[in-house]
Amino acid sequence: MSQVLLLGPAHEAAGVRRAEIEGDTLAEVMAAAVTRFGPRFAEILAISRLWVNGEDAPADQAVGPSDEIAVVPPVSGG
Fold first, then answer.
1. 23-51 pLDDT per residue, tens
2. How deeply is 4 buried, as exposed, middle or buried, from its count of CB atoms within 10 A (0-12, 13-18, 19+)?
3. pTM of the entire structure?
4. Which domains does the chain have, with CATH numbers?
């Protein structure tokens, strides 16, 4: 299982900051996360960046138990 770090609105939508989620690819892990956390999380995920081990990653990237996946929603500031 991969470690998933949920930041900002993704954390709020999921109700947790970290989760262990199973999947062989980033897309599989995110599909399982949507099933676990629901439609509000899916909305946030749709506008978020996904990083694996601190780097932007494509959906088909393989992931494993030693990988940390971060869901990084857009931020605004001023």
1. 999 999 999 999 999 999 999 999 999 99
2. buried
3. 0.92
4. 2-72 (3.10.20.30)
Assigned token pair, 63? 């992931």
Q: Are the CB atoms for 32 and 22 separated by under 8 Å?
A: yes
Q: Which 3 state secondary structure label does DSSP give 38? A: coil
Long-range contacts of 3-6 (CB under 8 A, 24+ apart): 3/65, 3/67, 3/68, 3/69, 4/29, 4/33, 4/68, 4/69, 4/70, 4/71, 5/68, 5/69, 5/70, 5/71, 6/71
Tokens of 34: 């949507």
* Three-state secondary-structure class, residue 2: strand
